[in-house]
Write a structure and sequence with these properties.
The protein is mainly β. Helices cover 11% and strands 38% of the residues. The chain is built from 1 helix and 8 strands. The chain has one helix spanning 2-19; strands spanning 38-43, 54-66, 73-81, 88-97, 110-115, 123-125, 132-137, 141-148. The strands form 2 sheets. A 4-stranded mixed β-sheet has the order 1-7-4-3, with no helix packed on it. The chain starts with a helix and ends in an 11-residue tail after the last strand.
Length: 159
């Protein structure tokens, strides 16, 4: 009798495990938690027919009260490879005010999103299978824009 009850329990548990929804493993579990004073930002882009036709533009910065001049931020940007995985992530630190134009402004200051000058790191590869992960100091935002290639490909002239 005990064997039959044990067998019934085992069969019931096995059946419930088969039909239970599998535990979803997030796709950032391999990335480290943010250090003190930093925030981990994750960008996941949707699947496309051809990821190579797209790029992701990163805009890292914050809203600031500024005058009519063009403002920017500067900082240290590191591309770090996750050991054992090969994935890369961005680590941004030492953000400070960058250059700005020097026009005389008569209008009152307004709040605008001022972004970090990122050079070659601005446009990133579009990859719908792997997130873009960036560690940024608290108080800063990570925004992004998706760029897509047009269908028309033109022939260069030979000269």
């Amino acid at each position: 009798m005990i064997k039959k009850i044990t067998l019934a329990i085992v069969v019931t548990l096995a059946g419930s495990l088969l039909y239970a929804e599998p535990a979803k493993k997030d796709n950032i579990h391999m990335f480290p938690q943010a250090q003190e004073g930093f925030v981990r930002h994750v960008i996941e882009v949707p699947k496309t027919d051809n990821d190579y036709d797209h790029r992701v533009e990163l805009l890292i910065g914050k809203k600031m009260l500024v005058d009519c001049n063009q403002h920017s931020l500067r900082g240290k940007i590191e591309n770090i490879t996750l050991k054992g995985w090969g994935y890369k992530y961005l680590e941004v630190s030492d953000i400070h005010n960058g250059p700005s134009t020097m026009m005389a402004c008569s209008e009152p200051k307004t709040e605008k999103f001022i972004s970090l000058y990122m050079g070659d790191e601005t446009l990133r590869r579009y990859n719908s299978r792997s997130p873009i992960v960036a560690y940024v100091p608290k108080g800063y935002e990570v925004r992004y824009r998706i760029w897509s290639a047009g269908d028309k490909v033109q022939q260069a002239k030979q000269r």
